[in-house]
Design brief:
Number of strands: 9
Helix content: 55-70%
Number of helices: 27
Radius of gyration: 27 Å
Bound molecules: zinc ion
Structural class: alpha+beta
């Protein structure tokens, strides 16, 4: 079979990718893979790793090699033709994945491998089999016909009403706007926000300014507008969207949908044999039970609350003395916080830029990786790239052997998707003929490009972002796992996947590491100590208040999904009020309907999973604390992290790997300490 989009052993030939070839190639490969599955199953077994999983892995690899480079180009070199081809392939690929997930014969073949061959398989192979069987079961394959039908009905109804939930939030957001003709009414707003408001007005053929509930517009007013009544008006409109309260009360009300979503999720969980939806959600995660998650969240709350209360008192005192606000309310919080932050730490990201020229930062980051993990990074000039800004690097082990590679594409430009991400280009795995595919990663950022002959100058935020994505990249590239389904970041539990990335960010705050990555682009002068001190102080501004707010969302989410009672349902507002009584330092007004716009859990993938943000932070902070104890460039600790975490991918339970590295269960102390919250005083 010839496929113009793939070259079996090498890197993607980007210049050979033609948009018009993508869809036919994907069609051909899906048909080929479908036939392959049928052919394997028709053999009747007995099924083994080699005649089932290894064969299907090769088929899947071919499909990925055809589609992934096109998907990457769609993100970094977008064009109408590419987007059209990409969008045409997406439903076909997702339908094919669903088709495989619901193939009962295939499920039985995997079961047979488990029953007959499990003892002979290695740890990674066993994990692949167990994950596959788990995912088949979570798609309802094991249920009797009547229940399978009900399961499918629940799925399709949930898809429909969760999407209606977000539509309501969107419609409610769009329904409200405020036309302002007098610029004086917007005193305090920065010029960029005023320009945006002017543009919004022009788009509707209005003069003056238009305020909307789109986040940038809302954020600018709630943070900067001196007019307190205006802040109150916009706050009220924003926090009552899609609810029974506020200016559009009852018009886009999500109340009934929220109850139905929770009821259907609970029923789905029970059909699959779980006590509640929280347990179902945790079946694929690192956390073991909702008791464990709630215990963790409450513990963090108890320890952070005293510091959060003190921050709130400071804020209220500042509001009274400096802003003339005696009766502090929810719509004052962002505004006064901004003023307080300016008063305490006037530090601008712009002032730091000259100290972080991109080439110096990159070289310093590679040096950090070299000291920690014993790897070398070397640029290559003979690899085909998609744009002049992109680069390719080999990763070498201590013996000088190439073990992986990565592309890096740092700067923002037209036709490139925003944000920063790591994506896998090639996964590490061993084919049936014994040949080894080495892993290759894409690291993509959107930093300010260089101007004239000067190098690109990065903000410290951008430097942190680069370390974050490089951490994901190391997880993908340093894997030693030979099995496709669990090598690199594949098969890593969702609440553990941010461990290596957030872990690497820590080096951006260490003076010893900053000495490697920072240096004035003209003079080479190191980052001045007073700037560093300010940076470190500003880092923890209101960190305890932010922490308890995240805890409020996380506990609320977990309790909703575990306390639902069939028939009676659950009183959503009451649960939220109880959670706030426990961990909140700011009690919002009674009309606040935050929950009606909490799309993360009602319409997104975070249901009974919102805690993951804090969970991953605890893991990365606690992992880093070993380096604080043993030295931040301690090669022994670095090798241990590489061995226990970076090399093992999803081949074992994330908790077991963490324990192996840290010698114990994760503890919250390091995160609290890094956030400037004194554990002793709080405990
Ligand atoms: Zn990340």
């Amino acid at each position: 079979m010839s496929n113009p989009l793939t070259s079996y052993s090498g890197l993607p030939p980007f210049s050979a990718i033609r948009p018009e070839h993508i869809e036919p190639a994907v069609d051909e490969l899906i048909a080929h893979n479908r036939a392959k599955v049928a052919e394997v199953l028709a053999s009747g077994g007995p099924f083994t790793w080699d005649n089932l999983v290894a064969v299907l892995d090769e088929a899947e690899d071919r499909l990925d090699r055809a589609f992934d480079p096109a998907s990457h180009l769609n993100a970094v070199m977008n064009s109408d033709a590419l987007r059209k081809a990409y969008n045409a392939c997406l439903p076909k690929l997702s339908d094919f994945a669903t088709e495989l997930g619901q193939n009962r014969e295939l499920f039985n073949a995997y079961l047979q491998v488990k029953q007959n061959e499990y003892e002979r398989l290695d740890t990674a192979q066993r994990k692949v089999i167990d994950n596959a069987l788990r995912d088949f079961r979570l798609s309802g394959i094991d249920l009797p016909p009547a229940q399978q039908k009900r399961f499918a009905d629940i799925q399709s109804r949930l898809a429909e009403i969760t999407s209606r939930y977000s539509d309501n939030v969107l419609d409610a957001t769009n329904a409200w706007s405020k036309h302002v003709t007098d610029a004086a009414a917007l005193a305090g707003l920065p010029e960029s926000a005023l320009a945006q408001a002017r543009q919004a007005a022009q788009q509707r053929n209005l003069d003056g300014y238009l305020l909307t509930l789109d986040f940038p517009s809302y954020y600018a007013v709630i943070t900067y507008a001196d007019d307190r009544a205006l802040r109150e008006e916009m706050y009220t409109a924003y926090v009552t969207r899609a609810s029974d309260q506020g200016p559009h009360a009852g018009q886009f009300d999500n109340t009934a949908l929220m109850n139905e979503i929770l009821a259907l999720r609970h029923e789905e969980a029970q059909l699959l044999g779980y006590a509640d939806f929280a347990e179902l959600s945790l079946a694929t995660k690192m956390a073991e039970s909702s008791d464990q998650v709630l215990g963790f969240l409450h513990d963090l709350g108890r320890k952070a609350l005293p510091a959060a209360r003190a921050e709130m008192e400071e804020l209220k005192a500042f509001a009274r003395s400096e802003c003339g606000i005696a009766d502090f309310r929810s719509w004052d919080a962002s505004y006064v916080s901004e003023k307080l932050q300016q008063a305490k730490y006037a530090i601008s990201q712009e002032a730091l830029r000259p100290y972080f020229p991109a080439p110096k930062v990159l070289a310093g980051m590679f040096e950090v990786a070299q000291r920690l993990f014993g790897i070398g990074v070397r640029e290559r000039s003979d690899v085909e790239l998609w744009h002049g800004d992109a680069r390719y690097y080999d990763v070498l082990d201590a013996q000088g052997e190439v073990i992986a590679g990565f592309y890096i594409d740092l700067y923002a430009r037209q036709h490139k998707r925003g944000g920063a991400w790591m994506d896998d280009c090639l996964a590490r795995w061993r084919r049936r003929d014994g040949s080894l595919q080495k892993p290759v990663a894409y690291l993509v950022c959107n930093f300010t490009p260089p101007v004239g002959n000067d190098p690109a100058l990065l903000t410290h935020d951008e430097v942190t972002t680069m370390f974050h994505e490089f951490g994901h990249g190391l997880h993908h590239m340093l894997t030693r796992v030979d099995v496709r389904g669990v090598s690199g970041i594949s098969g890593v539990a969702w609440d553990a996947v941010e461990l290596p990335s957030q872990f690497m960010e820590n080096w951006c705050w260490e003076p010893e590491a900053l000495a490697l990555i920072a240096g004035h682009y003209q003079t080479g002068e190191p980052l001045p100590a007073d700037l560093l001190q300010k940076m470190l102080a500003a880092k923890n501004f209101q960190s305890a208040m932010m922490m308890v707010r995240q805890l409020e969302f996380s506990i609320f989410d977990m309790r909703l999904h575990r306390e639902f009672v069939p028939g009676t349902g659950i009183d959503i507002q009451k649960v939220l009020d109880e959670v706030r009584a426990e961990v909140a330092v700011m009690r919002p007004p009674a009309f606040n309907r935050f929950q009606h716009g909490f799309s993360h859990i009602f319409a997104g993938g975070y249901a009974a999973g919102y805690y993951s943000y804090k969970w991953a932070e605890v893991l990365s902070a606690d992992a880093f604390s070993r380096f604080e104890e043993e030295g931040i460039f301690n090669a022994h600790a670095g090798a241990a992290f590489r061995r226990a975490i970076l090399e093992r991918g999803g081949s074992e339970e994330a908790m077991a790997l963490f324990r192996e590295f840290r010698g114990r269960e994760p503890r919250v102390d390091a995160l609290l300490r890094h956030a400037g919250i004194a554990v002793d005083a709080a405990a």
